Write a sequence for this structure.
């Protein structure tokens, strides 16, 4: 019988096994390093090919910085945390293929279509630079407001770029563009049920800005052109270049000059030293609702003698009890006319002369969703006929009671239809 020492491996065999394992490990490490370098070289070459222009335009070619794996991973992690990322000029050139696809332009600058390396589509708004502070203020307003918020009905800001050459904002890409293109005939019609959803979603986005954020945000430029539609035609409020913060304990902000778009701006914005509140957004939203109901622009001037203002027409029809007839002439089908009448009444409440007489956006959401009955709205637009602008003082309701700036009881706008609706909550993300 052999001893136990004969069955155990010798010291030479153990050393050989260790050496063999080390050699195999070394080969594996070498192969991994080679593959990593090759993958890195492929990424850099692909990015250079994306931004490279024809040889005939060498002065437009922008050098692309090499993206290493840790930097890209950090970038994707920051996106996942919903924090705006500060991009470089070279990154924007890569994302937009050297700004090859233009989506639109305006007084603010130009918007280009782009795409992140992970395939997410984006819209890059490049702001015009000037000696004036307007562009700088717009940049700070957009990053400072929408960069701090996240809501399903607000356009998402992925990040920005700011250096001595470029000021740009990087947004999520909205496949179906802005609402005005559909309301005013440049694109196909949207069915009424979807328009109702668009109006309600837009109202929820504004209500979030006014009532859910830590600091109230006044948008100042609510209009169809600033309501963007995603692939499912879900609305998102955009363009916060005029937006301002307002502390909740302040009843108003000082008037710093005219803001917004003529035809949508509240009348108090035209007055000197008049206190401005978030209710100016409510007025603008009412004007937007009129255009949804009519599927036309509120103002049509066919000749110097002919002036057609749709909101005044809506009030006259409501006063005569002919809203149903009006919705029929607007081409709304019978099954949708009840909702269109309700939307018309909501619009009439929103455009009241006095800011205090206008409902909060949370009440507007309840109306549009059909959860409560709407009280009869008072006559709006007194300021158009008054010689003095004192018509902006609190107005009387249809029942004869007046509004006080310190009071905002929902009972003056609507009454609950069922006891279960005594408490209403808008489904929103926290600020």
């Amino acid at each position: 019988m052999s001893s136990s020492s004969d069955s155990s491996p010798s010291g030479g065999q153990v050393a050989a096994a260790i050496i063999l394992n080390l050699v195999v490990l070394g080969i594996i490490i070498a192969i991994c390093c080679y593959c990593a370098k090759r993958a890195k070289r492929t990424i850099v070459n692909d990015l250079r090919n994306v931004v490279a222009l024809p040889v005939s335009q060498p002065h437009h070619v922008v050098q692309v910085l090499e993206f290493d794996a840790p930097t890209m991973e950090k970038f994707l992690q920051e996106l996942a945390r919903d924090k705006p990322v500060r991009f470089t000029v070279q990154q924007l050139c890569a994302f937009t293929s050297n700004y090859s696809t233009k989506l639109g332009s305006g007084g603010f600058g130009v918007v280009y279509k782009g795409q992140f390396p992970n395939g997410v589509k984006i819209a890059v708004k490049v702001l015009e630079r000037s000696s004036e502070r307007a562009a700088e203020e717009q940049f700070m307003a957009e990053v400072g407001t929408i960069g701090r918020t996240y809501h399903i009905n607000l356009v998402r800001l992925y990040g920005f770029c700011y250096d001595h050459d470029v000021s740009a904002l990087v947004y999520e890409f909205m496949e179906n563009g802005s609402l005005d293109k559909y309301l005013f005939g440049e694109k196909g019609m949207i069915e009424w049920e979807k328009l109702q959803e668009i109006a309600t979603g837009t109202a929820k986005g504004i209500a979030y800005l006014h009532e859910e954020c830590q600091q109230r945000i006044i948008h100042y430029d609510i209009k169809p052109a600033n309501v963007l539609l995603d692939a499912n035609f879900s609305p998102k409020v955009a363009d916060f270049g005029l937006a301002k913060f307002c502390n909740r304990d302040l009843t108003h902000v000082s008037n710093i000059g005219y803001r917004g778009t003529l035809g949508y701006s509240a009348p108090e914005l035209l007055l000197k030293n008049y206190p401005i509140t978030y209710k100016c957004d409510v007025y603008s939203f009412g004007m937007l609702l009129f255009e949804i109901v009519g599927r036309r622009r509120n103002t049509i001037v066919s000749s110097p003698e002919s002036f057609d203002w749709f909101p005044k027409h809506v009030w006259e029809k409501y006063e005569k009890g002919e809203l149903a007839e009006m919705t029929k002439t607007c081409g709304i089908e019978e099954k949708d006319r009840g909702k269109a009448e309700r939307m018309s009444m909501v619009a009439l409440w929103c455009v009241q002369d006095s800011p205090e007489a206008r409902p909060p956006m949370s009440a507007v959401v309840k109306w549009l969703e059909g959860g409560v009955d709407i009280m009869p709205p008072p006559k709006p637009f007194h300021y158009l006929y008054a010689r003095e602008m004192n018509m902006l003082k609190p107005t009387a309701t249809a029942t004869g009671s007046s509004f006080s700036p310190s009071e905002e009881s929902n009972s003056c706008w609507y009454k609950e239809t069922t006891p279960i609706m005594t408490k209403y909550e808008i489904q929103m993300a926290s600020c």
